[in-house]
Design goal:
about 375 residues; alpha+beta; 4-stranded antiparallel beta sheet; about 55% helix; globular; binds acetoacetyl-coenzyme A
Length: about 375
Amino acid sequence: MNEFQRELTSSLEKFCQDNIEPHMEHDDHEGKFRMEIFRGLGEYGVTGVTLPEEFGGAGLSYQDYAYVLETIAKYSVPYAVTVSVSSMVQSILLNFGNAEQKKKYLPALTSGEEIGAFALSESHSGSDAANMKTTAKKVDGGYMLNGTKMWITSGGIAKTYIVMARTGGEGAKGVSAFIVRDGDKGFSFGKAEKKMGWKTSPTRELVFENCFVPQENLLLEEGKGFNVAMGGLDRGRVAIGAIGVGCAQRALDESIKYSLTRQQFKQAIFDFQGLQFMLSDMATETEASRLMVHSAALSLDSGTPNSKLCSMAKLKATDTAMKVTTDAVQVLGGVGYTSEYPVERFMRDAKVLQIVEGTNQIQRVVIARHLKKEYEQ
Ligand code: CAA
């Protein structure tokens, strides 16, 4: 971490302590998302970290962004996820949008005034994303969308949605990507999911019934929607990895603090070697994950994303988050299982990190495909 990153994260840490931490136990219980927290993060300058200043972004690197997400996730995994999905939408617009689309949609997203969401999954096509059924039929002046998207992070609170729909034949080549806005005729929100974790981040169905999308809202060209989605996910997966690191780090911090003060058998439980081995493994795995996330972030900063590294970072950091948060509950024992301490919340929030933006089994599929290609050459 360089001097700039140290300053950035320590002042952001203070912001999160003052503005996020005080609400989290209550809001997790109530399932309450607060737009003012998101807008506060925007005013702070972290809702468009890697976007160029020309579009209202901070113009920083993906490595800086990884530290930003790690820091927010130490206080709230769901708010870090809201920032990361909205940032993925921004990177899609930046990399695949035309000049007009960038100018029109990016400033409200980078400033945190609006939230962005990404709509790929459907009830029968999660991992097999190319098998989607939502259609976009060519009509005069644009496309008519019909179908339902599922498990959409920030569904209902986002304004701008990147929606993948089928314009052509079967498989990935028949998919196109569109910009759809909340309020567009024929676009409505379905069921809000009741979840184990991520309670302050709404997850919702999106329903398209004869929703007209003008031609100018097509991204790239017809048939390139799957590439748009996968390109976005390379960046999104590194971000989810960074959130996993923050989640694990908070659980580790809580475990060390607690074990240094909790006395059993006339000594701090930290002084039992069994606990020391556990805490050392938790710290080592968290640091290893951080290094992998930064290695993948470096590939994004170089301008040629390394999909294999992006998947590896997501896999390692989110499996670590699950393991470390589960161990943290064990270290804290009885109180760890109660909402008196935050570790049970972080354990619930960690679970879905292994599922979103491609399950960790799908990350292994991506890694194996790259390995095969490399060794076949
Ligand atoms: N970047 C750009 N293009 C890519 C790419 C990448 N990283 N990976 C693949 N592509 C392209 C391929 O080159 C190919 O295009 P061409 O034919 O033009 O070369 C096209 O995409 C199809 O690729 P595949 O043949 O590999 O496609 P597949 O059907 O075998 O699927 C898969 C591959 C890896 C399994 C993919 O379906 C996948 O990643 N599935 C998981 C889906 C997922 O991650 N969903 C997350 C939902 S979003 C979410 O969770 C966000 C949230 O709300 C928090």
